[in-house]
């Protein structure tokens, strides 16, 4: 695969940095800090351009906070200045990340996403009798910086860009040389690319047709449970040896006729519905939006956008009666 080079200048261009600010401020433009940043945008563009081109850019500290989704997770969000830099990087580099992926991986890719992954899983479930579901144990915390750097070097040859990638990786560690922060734009693309060698192994070495991956959630479909048990061992071995990753012990092999819990949906041969866990998350999200409106922490426009996304999540089942079922439950739960 041909590597991309001479791209640092495009990342550091004033027009790209301004576009990055516009993207990073989306949904945040009424916040005082973002308004003030916009007033000093010309100054930022000049300083950031020099830092990037001279190799002086260094990421700042992260803001850590806990969420429940529904299990507790720690989010480490970069400062707004770094958020803009990350957008500037992805504006230019996203197409190169895209080149490293097979067609059956769906996270962090334009024109794909969660619902496309569900549609793909539905098609495979109609054709195959058995499924294997895999999930990496502590995925973001387990990503090895050295292995990730080598994967990045197979796709980028611009030394300046690779140096920036290494600084971003070094800015956060769960243990020496490991870990990516959940909450960073670059982390999403780094994490998605990290499993690209596993995708290739599954498709090219094991020759598996029924395969769907959304970040570290993997679904493999086949004709027999015995065949999937053998595949599970091969995938586990490759993940540990090549990527230093372990899968969660709760590995599922079962019949597709019983339904497959995947990405918050229960995927079936005849219809797809939200799982109980998916409904719980949706209820919490609705409650959070309504609470934010009451406390004037979010605008009515932001609330409308979030609720529209929630309706789209329900409609992703492709089941016309599901919206009524779910939102009737939410009304009863919130009264």
Structure characterization notes:
The chain is α+β, with helices and mostly antiparallel strands and 335 residues long. Helix content is 55%, strand content 13%. It is built from 15 helices and 9 strands. The protein has helices spanning 8-11, 14-24, 32-39, 41-54, 80-99, 114-127, 139-142, 145-153, 159-170, 185-194, 196-205, 225-243, 276-294, 300-315, 322-334, and strands spanning 62-68, 72-78, 130-135, 211-214, 217-222, 252-255, 260-262, 265-267, 272-274. The strands form 3 sheets. The chain has a 4-stranded antiparallel β-sheet, sandwiched between helices. The protein has a 3-stranded antiparallel β-sheet with strand order 7-8-9. α2 packs across α4 (41-54) and α11 (196-205) crosses α12. The N and C termini lie far apart (57 Å). The relative contact order is 0.12.
């Amino acid at each position: 695969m041909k590597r991309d080079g001479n791209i640092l200048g495009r990342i550091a261009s004033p027009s790209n940095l301004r576009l990055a600010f516009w993207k990073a401020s989306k949904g945040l433009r009424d916040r005082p800090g973002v308004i003030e940043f916009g007033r000093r945008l010309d100054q930022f563009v000049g300083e950031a351009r020099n830092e990037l081109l001279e190799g002086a850019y260094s990421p700042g500290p992260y803001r850590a906070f806990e969420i429940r989704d529904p299990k507790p997770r720690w989010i480490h969000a970069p400062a707004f200045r770094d958020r803009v830099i990350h957008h500037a990087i992805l504006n230019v580099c996203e197409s190169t990340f895209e080149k490293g992926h097979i067609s059956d991986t769906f996270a962090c890719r334009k024109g794909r996403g969660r619902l496309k992954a569900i549609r793909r899983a539905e098609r495979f479930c109609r054709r195959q009798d058995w499924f294997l579901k895999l999930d990496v144990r502590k995925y973001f915390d387990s990503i090895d910086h050295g292995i990730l750097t080598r994967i990045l070097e197979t796709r980028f040859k611009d030394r300046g860009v690779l140096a920036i990638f290494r600084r971003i990786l070094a800015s956060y560690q769960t243990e020496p040389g490991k870990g990516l922060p959940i909450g960073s734009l670059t982390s999403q693309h780094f994490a998605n690319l990290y499993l690209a060698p596993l995708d290739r192994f599954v498709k090219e070495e094991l020759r598996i047709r029924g395969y769907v991956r959304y970040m570290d959630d993997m679904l493999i479909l086949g004709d027999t449970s015995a065949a999937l048990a053998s595949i599970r061992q091969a995938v586990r071995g490759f993940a540990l040896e090549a990527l230093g990753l372990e899968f969660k012990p709760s590995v599922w092999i079962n019949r597709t006729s019983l339904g497959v819990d995947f990405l918050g949906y229960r995927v079936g041969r005849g219809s797809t519905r939200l799982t109980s866990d998916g409904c719980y998350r949706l209820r919490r999200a609705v409650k959070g939006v309504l609470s934010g409106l009451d406390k004037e922490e979010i605008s009515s426009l932001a609330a409308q956008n979030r609720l529209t996304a929630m309706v789209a999540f329900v409609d992703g089942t492709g089941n016309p009666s599901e919206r009524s079922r779910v939102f009737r439950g939410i009304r009863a739960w919130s009264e």
